[in-house]
Amino acid sequence: MKHSLILWSVVSLAYTVLAVFLGITLKEEMMMLLWLYLVIGIPILIAALILVVLYFTASRKAFWTVFGLFVLFGAGIIGYELITVPK
Q1: What would the pLDDT profile of 19-71 be if each residue is shown by its tens digit?
Q2: What's the rounded mean pLDDT across residues 67-78?
Q3: What would the 3-class secondary structure string for the chain be?
Q4: How far apart are CA 23 and CA 29, in angstroms?
Q5: What pTM did the predictor assign?
Q6: What is the spatial distance between Cα 87 and Cα 84, in angstroms, rounded to a whole number?
Q7: What is the spatial distance between Cα 47 and Cα 30, in angstroms, rounded to a whole number?
């Protein structure tokens, strides 16, 4: 636990130095974090809620089908991002 605190302190310090070097203000940082929450966090929460509801109400086949579709959809997004990265 003690080493984890030291590690995250160093990571936070490095991130702060990078933000200062790039000229990122606190307002811009908060907007980036809000955007990340809205774009990534909310869909993950919705997907998790759908899976929990299906797990307790639908058949196991329906649950695993939807779960598999979510996995394939996520893999497709990641694959697309990996393929289209500028070189």
Answers
A1: 888 888 878 878 887 888 888 888 888 989 999 999 999 898 989 999 999 99
A2: 90
A3: CHHHHHHHHHHHHHHHHHHHHHCCCHHHHHHHHHHHHHHHHHHHHHHHHHHHHHHHHCCHHHHHHHHHHHHHHHHHHHHHHHHCCCC
A4: 10
A5: 0.53
A6: 9
A7: 25
